[in-house]
Amino acid sequence: MASGHGNTPAAWTAVAVAMLGFVVGSVALLQTPTQMTLLWIGIIVAVVAFPLFLVLAKLGFNTSDH
Q1: Which of 20, 42, 46, 49 has the most neighbouring CB atoms within 10 Å?
Q2: Which of 21, 14, 64, 17 is nearest to 43 (CA)?
Q3: pTM of the prediction?
Q4: Hey, is 35 helix, strand or coil?
């Protein structure tokens, strides 16, 4: 693996947003009855993480120099 692989602000931000989406979705699944609206919000937040990474990478936050 390359030195600093994944240790960039773009990668950390994308992982944090994806984790938030998974947590929201998990909380929705633990409710009785299942909160489908909250589940879909969690799914959307998790899916937004990848385009967010691409935008941050294009803005130059995909280098370890930050």
Answers
A1: 42
A2: 21
A3: 0.86
A4: coil
